[in-house]
Amino acid sequence: MAYKNQYAILTKGLTKQYGQALAVNGLDLSIEPGRFYGLLGPNGAGKSTTIHMLTTMTSASSGEAWISGREVKRYPVQTRAAVGLVFQDSALDRMMTVDENLQFAAALYNLNKQQAEQRISELLSVFGLEKKRHQKLVALSGGQRRAVDIARGVLHKPQVLFLDEPTIGLDLPNRRAIWRFIEQLRKDEGMTVFLTTHYLEEAEACDHVDFIQKGQLQKGGAPKKLIKNLAAYMLEIDCADTEMVSQQMRPQFGEPLWEDQHLTYRIQDKETDFYRLQKTLGNAVNAMQWRKPNLNDVYLWTVCPPDYGVVT
Ligand SMILES: Nc1ncnc2c1ncn2[C@@H]1O[C@H](COP(=O)(O)OP(=O)(O)OP(=O)(O)O)[C@@H](O)[C@H]1O
């Protein structure tokens, strides 16, 4: 059907059940080509399972999925050709050189010698790894190895690139470098990118993020908009008697997120006089600070809002 071609990723009621456990429950997604999409959620929420179903690594228990207009279940070979995958665990052989690893992957993707040569050179140049081409993976830094992993994932110029925690374990400069490469690939090749990450500041660059918890999707939106809608300020209070302070705060500021002796409030009123509030609370508080909200706050208030239960 024509409208399915409009989307790089489309799912309807996509569900995965492992025994009694619902890993992914009735997922409806519609992601347009060229978008940078983030799926965020705690450990065990169903993020990897979603990627596995969309890339033919596991079959769905029910529901349907289309990649670039083709039904995943009916066209597994074409689906695999249309997607690139970069997982937390490297798909590379550390005892082989960069070139050997990429040539091996190119053969799996059925690239001929000339295509492989051209694509490998092109990608190593984007990643600044030309000089490492004939070095073994073990001799590369963690960031360089991850860059080779990404090069491997996009060798065949996929339409959709799935990145499952692509920067996990990397330090900040390496994480930034990886994101520069991914941005470059998006710009040059117009790929749709589907990201899962625990580093939420990285997801602020997404066009759209959704949240998933216990297999259930909670619709999100554009990160900037979500942040703006969350609050004008976040107010954090450290205090010994949280019951007493929260009781005092409740009429004006509602319920906080509660973590041991740390309370976090959403403040909607831009004109709030925090210095006056500090005076009113007096000795009841040990420390108090207010700041602009970020995506991490949106995530916490979506996944663990105060009426949901205690933040763990
Ligand atoms: N092969 C499997 N057999 C049984 N249960 C599984 C299997 N794979 C995943 N699960 C369960 O499905 C649920 C979702 O797991 P999944 O790996 O998709 O979560 P995740 O959001 O990717 O977590 P993380 O952030 O830790 O990678 C979890 O409860 C997990 O234990």
From TrEMBL:
Sections of the chain in a coiled coil: none
Which InterPro entries does the record match to this protein?
Answer: AAA+_ATPase (IPR003593), ABC_transporter-like_ATP-bd (IPR003439), ABC_transporter-like_CS (IPR017871), ABC_transporter_ATP-binding (IPR050763), P-loop_NTPase (IPR027417)
| Keyword line | ATP-binding, Nodulation, Nucleotide-binding, Transport
Could you tell me which Pfam families the record lists for this protein?
A: ABC_tran (PF00005)
What are the recorded GO MF terms, alphabetically? ATP binding; ATP hydrolysis activity
The ABC transporter domain sits at 9-239
**Family affiliation:** Belongs to the ABC transporter superfamily.
Q: What's the protein name?
A: ABC-2 type transport system ATP-binding protein
Q: From which source organism is this entry?
A: Methylophaga sulfidovorans
